[in-house]
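Entry 14. Structure prediction run on the chain below.
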Amino acid sequence: MRFTRLLLTKHVKSSILWSHRLWVRSRLDSSTVAAEGALDTDNVQAQLDNTLAWCKAHVSDYTGWNFRHWLLTQLHLHHGTAAHSPLVAEINLCHTLIEAYDGHESLWYHLRSLSRLACLVWPSQWIRSSADTASAYSIAGDRIPSAASQDAFAQRIMAAKPASGLDREFALVYRHLIAKEAGDGIPEATKRAIADLVRQDMPGKQYLLQ
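Output returned:
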C-alpha cells in the first residue's frame, strides 16, 4: 500500500495503480476476515484518511473516488450500523467539494454511488419525505441523508452555479436519478417538474425519461 501511494505521487490519475491498490486492499481484507472473523475497521479508516488529501487535490480523478467508495462498501458489508458515520461524512465531503469546484463530473458520479449505498444502508430514512426532516435521526451530529435532502442539495447547486456551466446539467441528472429511486420520498409534483426540466434543458438526453 505504501508503494502504490508513492507511485501515485509520480503518476497522477493512474487507473492501473488505483486498481492494483484496490486489489491489494481486498486481499488484505480477505486475509484479516479469514483469520479474525472480522474486517479491521481501524485499518480501513486509516486508508480513508490516507487517501483524503490526495482525492481532494485531484477531484477530477474518478479512480481515487472509486477506491474510497469500495472501502465504504466494505465497512457496511462487514460492520453494518457501526460503519455508518464514515458514509455520512463522505456525502458531506462530496457536497462541499461540488460547491467549491465547478464542472467536475467525477464528484457527481461519486455522489450518485454514495446515494445508492445510503439507500441500502438507511432504506426507511432514505425515502423520508421533506416534511419529515424534523424526525430525522443523526450520526455524530450529522443528519442522515435522504432522497429529499439530496434533491434539495441539487436544487441549491442549480440555483447557485452559472446557467451555462456543467454543474447545472450534472445536478439535474442527479435530481432525476434520485427521483426515480426515491419512491414516496419525492412528491409526484416534484418528479414531474424534474422531468419537464430534463425535456427543456437537456433535449439530447431524453432517454433518461424512459
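The first strand starts at residue 138 and ends at 139.
Filed with the rest of this week's runs.
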